[in-house]
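Appendix B, example 12.
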Amino acid sequence: MGETDNSNATPHRVAHPTIRPRDGVMEIAPYVGGKGATAPGAIKLSSNENPHGPSPAARAALAACANKLELYPDGGAAALRAAIGAVHGLDPARIVCGAGSDEIIALLCQAYAGAGDQVLSSQHAFLMYRLSALAAGATYKSAPDDGLTTDIDALIAGLSARTRLVFIADPNNPTGTMVGRAALTRLADALPPQALLVVDGAYAEYLEDPAEDSGLTLSAERDNVIATRTFSKIHGLAALRLGWAHGPAHVIDVLNRVRGPFNVSAPALAAGAAAIEDRAWVTRCRDDNNRLRAWLTEQLRSQGLGVTESYANFLLVDAGSATVALNAHLEASGLIVRAMGGYGLPRHLRISIGDQAACEAVAAAVRAFMHRNAATA
């Protein structure tokens, strides 16, 4: 689930009398990346990046590639697929790698959905699902959520003979909520025969119990489920654009046919293999994130803010009518977070879990804002 945002973008419409794109393309607003920390000393908490960065092993593997940049990468990503398979107990032949999980999402839409087809997801789903569906010429449909959690019954009710792909992120971005294996199994059971369930596990490494990671289990057991993953979050390799998917052989075969022959760079392949094998670093990053996530949740709730229970590396915070003012106050305090209007959540901010100092700075800034507001009320 690559981290991008088009909440403030407007379609750039350039008219031409005869040369026109396929239907649906002009409905796509150009992507605008998460706002960066431009002021000196500002802390970027808008894109769910790992504050610890990649493991030392991944950094070393990346540096070792510097003298081999004239060589094409391994188009089959054999070493990386083998490393992923060994760590997760998966068959490497059923793994495909991409330039971020975003590319795999786009390839799935390109391969399985087109004119007359439907791509289905939840109300507050990752924006890339809709944009990839429209780019492929398909229609996109969202099912209403149950509060801020994906509603499996609503998704099942939204299935039709036109449905080709159903995208579910578990945990979900931007809400941080999850539905778990039983619900996803029920959805997979309900799919029409032509449809494929895509379980996006961009944040699955943050789950405390590996048994809760349902995407890889279902993709190993079923012929209508594929799981996608990214190296951008817990592995700290967002700049290299690296992702992967595991699924039934017939889907992996299709994705290998439509992807570019060298779609992943050699530095990304090398750093990715080293990163996934460094389990101690993954554990450290997960434990630190989850400890600080619980602490910051308590701090923000104590100030009267609504905080959705999160299973990821961010918090979705409901500031009500004060959302715009709080966002401005945080930015003025050197803390760059993300407004969620583009996801249909105008009352909410999404705040990435940074390191200890960043989390303490968020808590202090929110406390100062709430006390100031209380004093002027």
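DSSP finds twelve helices and 13 strands in the chain. The first strand starts at residue 43 and ends at 44.
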